[in-house]
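TA notes, week 10

Several of you asked for a full example with nothing omitted. So below is the full record: structure tokens for the whole chain, then the designed sequence directly under it. When grading your own attempts, check the secondary structure regions first.
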């Protein structure tokens, strides 16, 4: 029986069945991969193609290079991952290994493809282990190759600790995303033929490429079972033997599918199959990061390279891309995964021990991108009732302030947001003097904002003008969302609303990058909920012009859907950025948005679904109900019958559960 045989036509689709891992895997649209992965899993076992995008795979490619065990999740630059690439071909086979595209199938936790005139590859993953199975279509000798130096970013070092087929161990070092640091990884693999160990020794040749010749008959199954560890080869073997051991590939796939259903099933939806499929596919991407890195005995390495052990019942996480996703993905985890968020928060607090790098260190335990705005995420989780070591967080955030860049206009705003979060946490802890100091520090950007952003000049629509990292002055103009009352008072509410109208009417908004993705929601915050509802409906349902890339403006804007259920999936040049964009989509479809990360409330707008329910993790359920057409005029919002006069919903009120009703006409 095939691992990914089609479900019965009359079977009820579960959330995991609706996930389409091919969304966002075409060219530079999303930078995602169809690799098999479990919720918050280190293991991402999937195909490597030529040509490749940043995750090593392009849906349009027809040439297969092999299958590797890690990758970044839509995080740009040169990508990262691709560790321990495995390939298998018949001896003497020349030319490219061609993919049989009609055979290619992926679901939550599984991937399958045929290539090279009939070799079938199937794979599944657990948190830290994976099973890769090749089935031979005909008798003959095949060459199994395992490359420990393959990486999408920059391979730095690799060595074999053991070349025995029963326990093949490698130690790897590779550059993180954008080559800002390095991560260290240990692998332990076992090779089986028809379920039995073969007791052979591989040969390591040029560039440490390990090879093994296997003579088989038609129908033979060659499996490679691999565990990953941040600590050592013993840990990787323990992960492998604990998480997959001798379970069949189908059994492992079934357990991972069940894990995805538990995670995704916390939200239930009405709506068409395609609507639900895009929602659950987006939520699936949100729940891939950060990743749990503990070995079965609780050991892990920290970002200084030291071995630590998690307390019993706790989990350490790594794999950060906070500049991208602190606005959306982290708040969504706080809402949908509050129990897990406590461990995520403590993992962020631990980054501050000894000084937190803003990008990556040379000793990361797993591939990562950047950790700016960790303090904002911590404040946000703390204020939403998630338990963290607030004293350690505050001390780390205060010390981190002196390391922040403040040279360019955007750097000044971003540092001010971090300082604001430090001031607010200090205020919550009755640290009045510290709160006063950091409030003043946070507000020091204001004269610059008046001179640079209050009336953008001739370079206001120039990407990277005045040293901006990505984006334009018009897009960064709205970045001090934590200081919205001051901005409104400075500009004047009516004038600000007029400038927001101009921002969208003149095509200055950029949905493909994070710096201004909160702006559609600002109308509602300023008393115009209909303008927000109309904009969100347009972005979610209609093709729009996307004129910007990270480095400049396109000669002709890309016109298309921002989010779609297709391999393209996203607008041109739009990275998912570790769930940053897909979390925006999930919030928008639910009709909620955390406008100011760090302040525990949501803007309420028209939900896409007539009815959805969220299990809140505290025994309560929030039902979101739309009464009236999706594209109607938003009339009112009520929580358990109580009007939300300003279309704001406090997180504490949300946690009570009940019914949030949005009425349109």
């Amino acid at each position: 029986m095939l691992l990914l045989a089609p479900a019965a036509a009359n079977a009820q689709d579960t959330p995991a069945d609706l996930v389409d891992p091919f969304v966002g895997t075409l060219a530079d649209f999303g930078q995602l991969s169809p690799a098999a992965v479990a919720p918050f899993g280190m293991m991402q076992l999937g195909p490597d193609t030529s040509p490749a995008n940043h995750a090593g795979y392009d849906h349009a490619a027809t040439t297969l290079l092999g299958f590797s065990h890690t990758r970044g999740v839509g995080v740009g630059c040169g990508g990262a991952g691709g560790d321990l690439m495995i390939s298998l071909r018949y001896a003497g086979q020349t030319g490219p290994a061609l993919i049989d595209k009609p055979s290619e199938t992926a679901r939550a936790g599984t991937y399958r493809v045929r290539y090279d005139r009939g070799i079938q590859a199937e794979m599944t993953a657990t948190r830290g282990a994976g099973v890769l199975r090749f089935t031979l279509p005909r008798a003959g000798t095949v060459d199994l190759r395992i490359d420990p130096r393959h990486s999408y970013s920059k391979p730095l070092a690799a060595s074999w600790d053991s070349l025995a087929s029963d326990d093949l161990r490698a130690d790897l070092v590779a550059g993180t995303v954008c080559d800002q640091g390095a991560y260290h990884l240990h692998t332990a693999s076992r090779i089986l033929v028809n379920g039995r160990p073969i007791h052979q020794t591989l040969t390591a040749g040029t560039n440490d490429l390990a090879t093994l010749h296997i003579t088989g008959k038609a129908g033979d199954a060659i499996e490679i079972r691999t565990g990953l560890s941040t600590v050592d080869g013993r840990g990787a073997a323990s992960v492998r033997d604990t998480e997959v051991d001798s379970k069949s590939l189908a059994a492992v796939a079934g357990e991972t599918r069940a894990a995805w259903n538990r995670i995704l099933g916390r939200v239930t939806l009405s709506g068409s199959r395609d609507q639900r499929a895009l929602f659950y596919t987006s939520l699936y991407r949100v729940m891939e990061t950060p990743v749990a890195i503990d070995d079965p005995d609780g050991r892990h390495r920290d970002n200084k390279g030291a071995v630590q052990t998690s307390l019993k019942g706790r989990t350490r996480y790594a794999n950060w891309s906070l500049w991208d996703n602190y606005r959306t993905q982290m708040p969504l985890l706080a809402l949908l995964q509050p129990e897990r968020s406590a461990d995520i928060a403590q993992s962020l607090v631990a980054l501050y021990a000894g000084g937190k790098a803003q990008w990556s260190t040379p000793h990361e335990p797993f591939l990562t991108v950047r950790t700016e705005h960790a303090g904002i995420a911590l404040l946000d989780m703390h204020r939403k009732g998630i338990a963290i070591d607030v004293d350690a967080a505050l001390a780390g955030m205060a010390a981190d302030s002196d390391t922040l860049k403040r040279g360019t206009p955007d750097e000044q705003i971003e540092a001010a947001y971090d300082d604001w979060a430090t001031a607010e946490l200090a205020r919550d802890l009755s640290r009045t003097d510290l709160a006063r100091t950091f409030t003043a520090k946070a507000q020091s950007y204001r004269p610059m904002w008046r001179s640079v952003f209050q009336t953008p000049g001739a370079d206001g629509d120039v990407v990277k003008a005045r040293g901006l990292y990505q984006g334009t002055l018009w897009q960064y103009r709205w970045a001090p969302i934590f200081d919205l009352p001051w901005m409104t008072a400075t500009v004047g509410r009516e004038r600000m609303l007029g400038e927001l109208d101009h921002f969208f009417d003149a095509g200055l908004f950029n949905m493909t990058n994070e710096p201004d993705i909160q702006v559609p929601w600002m109308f509602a915050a300023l008393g115009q909920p209909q303008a927000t509802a109309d904009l969100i409906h347009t972005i979610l349902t209609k093709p729009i012009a996307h004129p910007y890339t990270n480095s400049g403006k396109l000669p002709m804007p890309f016109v298309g859907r921002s989010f779609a259920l297709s391999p393209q999936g996203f607008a041109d040049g739009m990275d998912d950025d570790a769930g940053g964009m897909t979390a925006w989509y999930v919030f928008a479809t639910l009709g909620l948005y955390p406008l100011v990360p760090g302040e525990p409330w949501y803007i309420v707008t028209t939900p896409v679904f007539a009815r959805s329910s969220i299990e809140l993790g505290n025994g309560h359920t929030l039902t979101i109900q739309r009464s009236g057409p999706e594209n109607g005029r938003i009339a009112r919002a009520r929580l358990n019958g109580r009007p939300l006069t300003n279309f704001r919903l406090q997180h504490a009120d949300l946690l009570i559960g009940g019914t949030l009703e949005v009425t349109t006409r």
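The two ends are 51 Å apart (CA to CA). Use that as a sanity check on your answer.
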